[in-house]
Amino acid sequence: MAYSAKIGPSILSSDLSCLGSECVRMMECGADYLHLDVMDGHFVPNITFGHPMVECLRKTVGQDPFFDMHMMVSRPEQWVKPMAAAGASQYTFHLEATTNPGNLIKEIRESGMKVGLAIKPGTTVEELAPWANQIDMALVMTVEPGFGGQKFMEDMMPKVSWLRSQFPSLDIEVDGGVGADTIHKCAEAGANMIVSGSAVIGSDDPRSVIALLRTVVAEAIQKRSLDR
């Protein structure tokens, strides 16, 4: 099993007027990576930020932090090269947003980024399966994408369990409503990359929340390896 527990604060939950220092703060609090939500007002109703912001953040935080770009956009093909040039580490696109996932996966790889593939709650995990061996990470949304602060959808956990059983070494990310009260369900299902927004960033002690999330996931990974 090549995967490990990784916690990625969703920086959209932070004070957007000081995003650079918030990113630095999250890394200092023990974050393994940063999850950046890009929304275009088409694929989802909200608008956030694009590659110019990513470029500025990269200059501010340096080369080390891993930028996981969650591309909630209706034309993901359009932003591969600009995001790569801006310093994105991983390009996570939505299966629902493209008619040619195979070609897009190839483009992302050729641009030097890792590949993530996301599915909305209404999309079956079987639709993602044909691409699972070509990607670095699968993202199972545990809320409808577009807004923070939504309630965690526990009925998405069978998707995570199925992916973990079929693709034992795949990085599997969950995003939406994940915090101290829902992390156990995610970990038991087999998720190892945990996006957490308000639960981490809104906390008085982000470091301890990140540590708690990571410990729960790491223990579940260890238990799974012993049970095999």
Q: How is this structure best described in words?
A:
The chain is of the alpha/beta class and 228 residues long. It is built from 9 helices and 8 strands. It has helices at residues 19-28, 51-61, 80-86, 101-110, 125-128, 157-166, 183-189, 198-201, 206-227, and strands spanning 6-9, 34-39, 67-72, 90-94, 114-119, 137-141, 171-175, 193-196. Strand 2, helix 2 and strand 3 form a beta-alpha-beta unit. Helix 6 (157-166) packs parallel to helix 7 (183-189). The longest helix has 22 residues, at 206-227. The chain is globular.
From the structure above, extract its key features:
9 helices, 228 residues, 8-stranded parallel sheet
Separate helix tally: 9
Multimeric organization: single chain
Helical amount? 25-40%
The amount of beta strand, in percent, is: 15-25%
Q: Radius of gyration in whole Å, from Cα?
A: 16 Å
Per-chain topology:
Elements: E1 6-9, H1 19-28, E2 34-39, H2 51-61, E3 67-72, H3 80-86, E4 90-94, H4 101-110, E5 114-119, H5 125-128, E6 137-141, H6 157-166, E7 171-175, H7 183-189, E8 193-196, H8 198-201, H9 206-227
Parallel strand pairs: 1-8, 2-3, 3-4, 4-5, 5-6, 6-7, 7-8
Helix pairs in contact: 1-2, 2-3, 6-7, 7-9
Structure described in brief:
Helices cover 37% and strands 18% of the residues.
